[in-house]
């Protein structure tokens, strides 16, 4: 069978990574979490204590960064410059600053090139914000996954509680809205549904139901 490129985009906490991981597993494809790449660059920039909107300084960070994904039992571990940062890149400090870094042209160019290389052979499920529009405009399958802000905040809240993080629901809602706003209004590769993407509203669906829908879409293509 042809090795497909599958793009899954959408706003923050819509369930993209959970679903993308399962779809990749079902098909025996590679899963690529592009959000983790933007988070990794943000982490490295914060380590160096540079202004997060300073393009020139960010270019220096990109010059000697290595980002590695290593498969593990519960998903994958992320290494930046050989330091394990899997949990750290999910902390509020990163989540609340990543959109600033992700709006810089040099950063997007660097990561887009890298993502295109990773996806070039196909057999990939890639999730992010601009995969269907910019990174893989010719992807075989494009899904734009959405859910209400309330539902997304609630999912994040439950996930946080299981990790011992206790941010109030109302704050999570504000943070998610703020990040979506920044990601949707930036001038380069904003978060927007590709014209040919299939919109999938997961507000009232279980993970299992979403998987069934997506597998049907893929079967039709294959
Ligand atoms: O998917 P995740 O929430 O981990 O993404 C973190 C941030 O990285 C997003 O809010 C966005 O600013 C940026 N991002 C992006 N383009 C992508 C993936 C993520 O700009 N393809």
UniProtKB/TrEMBL annotation:
- Residues binding ATP are 10-18
List the protein's name. Answer: Cytidylate kinase
What EC class is this? transferase
Specify whether Kinase is a keyword of the entry: yes
Q: Which HAMAP family match?
A: Cytidyl_kinase_type1 (MF_00238)
The protein's matches in Gene3D superfamilies, at most eight in alphabetical order, are given as: P-loop containing nucleotide triphosphate hydrolases (3.40.50.300)
Q: Print the keywords alphabetically.
A: ATP-binding, Cytoplasm, Kinase, Nucleotide-binding, Transferase
Report which reactions are catalysed by this protein: CMP + ATP = CDP + ADP; dCMP + ATP = dCDP + ADP
Annotated GO biological processes are:
nucleobase-containing small molecule interconversion; pyrimidine nucleotide metabolic process
UniProt-annotated location(s)? Cytoplasm
**Record flagged with keyword Magnesium:** no
Q: What is its EC number?
A: 2.7.4.25
Q: What positions does the domain Cytidylate kinase occupy?
A: 6-219
Question: What GO cellular component is one of the record's annotations?
Answer: cytosol
Q: Which GO terms describe its molecular function?
A: ATP binding; CMP kinase activity; dCMP kinase activity
Query: What is stated as this protein's family in its record?
Result: Belongs to the cytidylate kinase family. Type 1 subfamily.
